[in-house]
Amino acid sequence: MTLSDEFYFLSIVEVAERIRRREVSCLEVVRGQLERIDVLDAELRCYITVAREQALVAAKSADAALANGDAVGALQGVPIALKDVIDAEGLPTTANSRVLGNWIPGRDATVVARLKAAGAIIIGKLNLNEFAWSIPSDSDRYPPPRNPWNTKYAAIGSSSGSGAAVAAGLCFASLGTDAGGSVRLPAAACGLIGLKPTHGLISHDGVLGCETIMEVGILTRTAEDAALLLGVLADKDSRDSARQVAAIRIGVPQREIEAAGVSYEIQTAFDQALGDFDALNLKAHAVAPRWMTEARAANFIILNAEEYSIHKRNLRERLDDYGKSASLYLLQGAFLSSADYLIALEARSAFAEEIDRIFEQVDILAMPVSPFTTPDEARAPATHRRGVGAAFTAPFNLSGHPALSMPCGISSSGLPMGIQLVGRKGEEAVLLKVASSFQRHTAWTEHHPKLPAVLGRKPVPAEMH
Amino acid sequence: MPIDDESVLLQKLAESHGLKLNDERAQLLLPLVKDLWAMAEALRKSDILQTQGQGASEDRTRVQGQ
């Protein structure tokens, strides 16, 4: 059977069901996935490593389990890819850096082990900003991914490959990491659901990055897929709200949105999204959380201090092995004092309490994912330096509250725009329930980038891979 | 382009961490570090903190004072 290109834009829920019903084999799904990567990724540059042999072996094993009538997991046979800071046994972890050389971890990160236990096929390791910090740069070991919606633009980072690959149908979902918006920003730029869970809900074991503010996040094409993956990855179940969707109160920090200098296109899309919520009987209320700017600053200070601490030895001994851009970003933390770091941690506690207080008034917060529409703006060092593009995302890394980005429009340059929802700690299920209602109402998640046809152009020989 | 005095001082600060910054890297890094210090300064002065911060290091004051 030759699968169509459209098959690779189905949700995980749909694909897993077709596999379980044995309408399509895991091997067919993986072969078609590899062919799409072979044809499209030379241009898109999403993958650093394609796990060709491992994926084919895993697919055959997954088919055998189905043929035997074995109990199978919720992700049986579904190709999923990993940001290349997440360890998978037998595959290089490069972090897109020359510093790591060809290091191959000897075991899976906990999140990878859980994916495999649920039947997922790890199809490869995805491109990123070097060591998940800095900006997209040609000075990294591998050049940055291109946005499949418009290849003249970046996919934003740092989980850029994780966003671009899912949007382009080069995997059905991906994992990224998020220490200031690095899952939610590429998800928004690529028209996806991007979930940063509550701090500590998903294991960091086997994942490179700073512990205090970083989370392993999920990028999918639907809210239902994100919920499915969260159930596989989380250490405990997320709490749902007793409230029906229509009774959920949305808080909008309008003063902070105005202060961030949101672009006209983003503001228009956000206002439309609030109108869509209203149509769903989700009522918006003005709220005024204090210290969003301070929270972004504190998050930035913690990120810089911890990244420098992680890399200090290599920065001393092998500075030229880092890309020029990454070296500058990683060096910054050397010039912070211990007092700066401790003050940022103190601000972390105060801001988390402030957001908890806001959640006594409303059930979720809504705001744009980023103030900007064009990725090129976010790439300019003058704007990125103070993390302005992360004005709405970084504060919730600091506070540890769960946050989700979802598509809410298409810009004049043909790129998706996103809205962010933030919830009480442990209440990812509420965010996903609202996102599901929103996506059914607006259908933004049904839009996909226009890409060249790959499958069905010619017969796929069985022995091709 | 000759290196400016502030970048030279940043190189000296870096040396105290065992880091060797060439002139180009020091000049590129300087505006990032100054922005970071400005953020840290703003945070110290914010009412988000229960108590006032302890202030910048002497080395930093030297560089900012140039």
* Residue share in β-strands of chain A: 5-15%
| Structure classification of chain B | mainly alpha
Largest interface, by Cβ-Cβ below 8 angstroms: which chains and how many residues each? Answer: A-B, 34 and 32 residues
Q: Runs of chain B with pLDDT <50, length 5+?
A: 51-59
Total beta-strand segments of chain A: 11
Our count of helices of chain B gives: 3
Question: Can you characterise this structure?
Answer:
The complex is a heterodimer of chains A (465) and B (66). Chain A has 465 residues and is an alpha/beta fold. Helix content of chain A is 40%, strand content 12%. Chain A contains 16 helices and 11 strands. An 11-stranded mixed β-sheet of chain A has the order 1-3-2-4-6-5-10-11-9-7-8, sandwiched between helices. In chain A, helix 5 packs parallel to helix 6 (184-190). The model of chain A has no long low-confidence stretch (mean pLDDT 93). Chain B has helices at residues 5-15, 23-45, 58-64. Residues 51-59 of chain B have low confidence and may be disordered. Chains A and B meet through helix 10, helix 11 and helix 12 of A and helix 1 and helix 2 of B.
List keywords for this structure.
heterodimer, A: 465 residues, alpha/beta, 11-stranded mixed sheet, 16 helices, 11 strands, 40% helix, globular, B: 66 residues, mainly alpha
Summed up:
The complex is a heterodimer of chains A (465) and B (66). Chain A is built from 16 helices and eleven strands.
Q: Which SSEs are present, and which pair or pack?
A:
The complex is a heterodimer of chains A (465) and B (66).
Chain A: H1 12-20, H2 26-44, E1 47-50, H3 52-68, E2 79-83, H4 110-117, E3 121-126, H5 160-167, E4 173-178, H6 184-190, E5 193-196, E6 215-220, H7 223-233, E7 250-252, H8 254-259, H9 264-279, E8 284-286, H10 292-317, H11 324-331, H12 338-358, E9 364-368, H13 375-379, H14 381-384, H15 394-399, E10 403-410, E11 416-423, H16 428-442
Parallel strand pairs in A: 2-3, 2-4, 7-8, 7-9
Antiparallel strand pairs in A: 1-3, 4-6, 5-6, 5-10, 9-11, 10-11
Chain B: H1 5-15, H2 23-45, H3 58-64
Helix pairs in contact in B: 1-2, 1-3
